[in-house]
UniProtKB/TrEMBL annotation:
InterPro entries: AAA+_ATPase (IPR003593), ABC_transporter-like_ATP-bd (IPR003439), ABC_transporter-like_CS (IPR017871), P-loop_NTPase (IPR027417). It comes from Microbacterium plantarum. This is UvrABC system protein A. It holds the Pfam family ABC_tran. The keyword Calcium does not apply. SUPFAM superfamilies: P-loop containing nucleoside triphosphate hydrolases (SSF52540). SMART domains: AAA. Keywords: ATP-binding, Cytoplasm, DNA damage, DNA excision, DNA repair, DNA-binding, Excision nuclease, Nucleotide-binding, Repeat. GO terms for molecular function: ATP binding. Residues 10-470, 484-774 form the ABC transporter domain. It is found in: Cytoplasm. Belongs to the ABC transporter superfamily. UvrA family.
Length: 791
């Protein structure tokens, strides 16, 4: 008995034990997850996969790690609350590799984000000729400073010697653009209306309302006449208003800093990554500012000294600008024993980019311009060569943005991490990834309140015969259309040269469902977004994240809350503002947040549900008013489907019907946007865009985050859009969407320099019959044609 007990105890440590998990919609989940295995979590979007993997297991791992630091360190760290779970045992340190876009820092590039640029800087400081200094001398983030130092340099190869060389301590930053690689020309007339005074709203910059503190810093500074039109300013007044250096002023006994409008806008908007700006701010920046490569450094971000050192005729800017496949070839051509260990590490890391399907990128590519899938794979680079073992890697749809041709390489990488003794947890919908799992955990049966329960655990073979929604759809295949729609006209693209496009001419048929395909980096987005976005009548639903604060919800994001508040106000004879938790209706105890935040240190805090409003965010007085027997809190707790049945159609019927159409009928109106998965956020944006008056819809990988069963619903939605007289253009890798298209435009044949051409135009059936492209090969295999099977 003792031996058996010991064996059971040992076995218990080979699984992550989750008991009573209730995070978000999880319904008291109990599950054992095998350690040192590749486990894939499946289920419809919103079923609770992310709540279990990210919100419970990964969150608790990170919380426990943070608690190992000394208290004085913890107070400087973001605090992670304990997940709502009864017990969580045998977890190991978790490394999360998600699809969040990489930083909003305009100085961050693919090279700096992966440390490859740091290794290149060391390489050039060691063997670059002429010698210009330490690795700092090649950094565009380090300005030139005074000082000097010495460094020992190996010269002459294996039989050579070490020399002590002195150098000036200096950075590589271009002084003209301050390492940003571009300069800007600001249109002052877009910043200010010269015919108006400050008090009349002369400043046209977003966030600078006439009665706000930003403008009061100018109007009440004592340096400017707030009632004088800008056009009547003296030269001194105009110079102060636009360009004055930071100066202390006092406004209503408060010390403030007066700074010219141009440098202030430059710091707050222009020096940030433009992709990270809110849409209305980005639109203003694009309107007001003309960006161009810095003439001093040619856009390389580096000063003359950094660009002067060369290895085999190549300087560090040239190396960073190379397509990574070319950079790998160049690194292999360098033969210098004195830096061989460094070269080996560089070659291995660069090869990882190629192995992971990112060989078409360059190191100088701004990290903020990467898609969610590209960002996730770039983050993976840091871990592929890691010596860590027995850790838990957590991935969120690692195949997002990948052509079927590239998925096998991703599977190899996931298995490689597992084979090093790690636990690999993957949230994924693609059958190709589910197939390689050691263990599958399926959640459901539905989404939202209808999900949050374990439907199946076991092997892939057992999943197939389980009868669950995922099991039934695992081998489901869409069929090629027997007939396609006839075009009602064409949308011309002529001479497209954005990024890697080779002067592309193509006609996109109107009145049809057109799918644009090709491997990642082939030029699909460059062709469609670069050529069509901004044209009249074109509505774009892209992958940019939804922005909002902790008070944002589907009701606020869609504008649904306004008619609901108006209906409550009309029914009760009071003002609409009373039914806003952000305004007059806010609970006085929690200020409308629904939780009480207790500060424990500089950044440490604890959140507890507000006892006064019981988490609703509304004051008790507001909850006395009802609409058809429900309080405002009860209405916001309804799902979209429930609200469509409970609320009068005149209130919000249009918005609710669109939410249901895109498969979001289960989300509640008042839940925080931060609780929505990536697929849910994408479809929420689509629901809003469907209300826009437009005849051409561009969708960028709308199957992201969608379960196999939900893809059929998406196809039905796309059909309804086209049948209503619209044209739909979809950038997509999912074979079911390709098979359902009326027209396919295949870009390739490869990625980066090897792409940028139209390699096929026509129907899906013609693509499969013609063969000759990677898309044709995989689509043929997917639909089970002889042509696909033979390849």
């Amino acid at each position: 008995m003792a031996a058996a007990s010991a064996e059971n105890a040992a076995d218990s440590h080979e699984v992550i034990r989750v008991r009573g998990a209730r995070e978000n919609n999880l319904n008291g989940v109990d599950v054992d997850i095998p350690k040192r295995r590749l486990t894939v979590f499946t289920g419809v979007s919103g079923s609770g996969k992310s709540s279990l993997v990210f919100g419970t297991i990964a969150a608790e791992s990170r919380r426990l790690i943070n608690e190992t630091y000394p208290t004085f360190v913890q107070q400087f760290m973001a605090q992670i609350g304990r997940p709502d779970v009864d017990a969580l045992e045998n977890i190991s340190p978790a490394i999360i590799v998600d699809q969040e876009r990489m930083g909003a820092n305009a100085r961050s590039t693919v090279g700096t984000a992966t440390d490859v640029h740091a290794m290149l800087r060391v390489l050039f400081s060691r063997i670059g000729q002429p010698f210009v200094g330490s690795p700092q001398a090649f950094s565009f983030n380090v300005p030139s400073v005074s000082g000097a130092g010495e460094i020992m340099i190996a010269v002459g190869g294996e039989e050579g010697r070490a020399e002590r060389r002195s150098f000036q301590v200096t950075g590589g930053m271009c002084p003209d653009c301050e390492g940003l690689g571009e300069v800007s020309d600001i249109d002052i007339d877009e910043l200010v209306d010269r015919s108006k005074s400050l008090n009349d709203g002369a400043i046209r910059v977003p966030g600078y309302s006439a009665d706000g503190w930003m403008v009061r810093g100018y109007s009440e500074s004592g340096l400017l006449d707030p009632d004088k039109p800008i056009a009547d300013y003296s030269d001194t007044e105009l110079e102060d208003f636009l360009y004055k250096e930071p100066t202390k002023v006092k406004i209503q006994s408060i010390n403030m800093t007066f700074e010219g409008l141009v440098p202030r806008v430059t710091k707050s908007m222009l020096q940030k990554d433009r992709e990270s700006l809110q849409p209305h701010v980005r639109a203003f920046v694009e309107r007001a500012v003309k960006f161009m490569p810095c003439p001093a450094c040619g856009g390389t971000r580096l000063n003359d000294g950094a660009r002067s050192a060369r290895i085999a005729g190549v300087n560090i800017a040239d190396a960073a600008a190379m397509q990574i496949t070319d950079l790998a070839d160049w690194l292999r051509s360098i033969d210098d024993p004195s830096v061989e260990p460094l070269l080996a590490g560089l070659r291995a890391t660069v090869q990882s980019f190629i192995d992971i399907g990112l060989g078409y990128l360059s190191l100088d590519r701004s990290s903020g311009t990467l898609s969610g899938g590209e960002a996730q794979r770039t983050k993976m680079i840091r871990h592929l060569g890691s010596s860590l073992t027995d850790v838990t890697y957590v991935f969120d749809e690692p195949t997002a943005g990948l052509h079927p041709h590239d998925i096998q390489r991703m599977n190899d990488l996931l298995r490689g991490l597992r084979d090093k003794g790690n636990t690999v947890l993957v949230v994924e919908h693609k059958p190709e990834v589910i197939e390689v799992a050691d263990h599958v955990i399926d959640l459901g049966p539905g989404a939202g309140r209808n999900g949050g329960r374990i439907q199946f655990t076991g092997s892939v073979a057992e999943l197939r015969v389980s009868g669950t929604l995922t099991g039934r759809h695992l081998d489901h295949r869409a069929q090629l259309k027997p007939a396609v729609r006839t075009a009602s006209g064409i949308l011309e693209i002529r001479g497209a040269t954005a990024n890697n496009l080779k002067s592309v001419d193509v006609d996109i048929p109107l009145g049809t469902l057109t799918v644009v395909t090709g491997v990642a980096g082939s030029g699909k987005s460059s062709l469609i977004h670069g050529s069509l976005a901004g044209r009249d009548g074109v509505v774009v639903v892209d992958q940019s994240p939804i922005r909002g604060n902790r008070r944002s919800s589907p009701a606020t994001y869609t504008g649904l809350l306004d008619p609901i508040r108006s209906a409550f106000a009309k029914a009760n004879g009071v003002k609409p503002a009373l039914f806003s938790a952000n305004s007059q209706g806010a609970c006085p105890a929690c200020k409308g947040l629904g939780v009480i935040v207790t500060k424990l240190g500089i950044t440490a805090s604890v959140e507890t549900e507000c006892d006064v409003c019981e988490g609703s965010g509304f004051s008790p007085d507001v909850l006395q008013y009802t609409l058809d027997g429900r309080t405002i809190a009860e209405v916001l707790a309804l799902s979209a489907t429930e609200a469509a049945e409970a609320l009068p159609p005149r209130v919000a019927g249009g918005v609710l019907s669109r939410l249901i159409d895109v498969g979001l009928g289960y989300i509640t109106l008042g839940q925080a946007l931060s609780t929505l998965s990536g697929g849910e956020r994408q479809r929420l944006k689509l629901a809003i865009s469907m209300a826009t008056s437009g005849s051409v819809y561009i969708l960028d990988e709308p199957t992201t985050g969608l379960h196999l069963a939900d893809v059929d619903n998406l196809l039905a939605l796309l059909d309804r859009l086209v049948d209503a007289g619209n044209s739909v253009i979809v950038i997509e890798h999912h074979q079911a969407v390709m098979a359902h298209a009326d027209h396919i435009i295949d870009i390739g044949p490869g990625a980066g320099r090897d792409g940028g051409r139209v390699v096929f135009e026509g129907t899906p059936a013609d693509l499969v019959a013609a063969g000759g492209t990677l898309t044709a090969e995989h689509l043929g295999r997917y639909v089970g044609t002889r042509a696909g099977s033979e390849r």
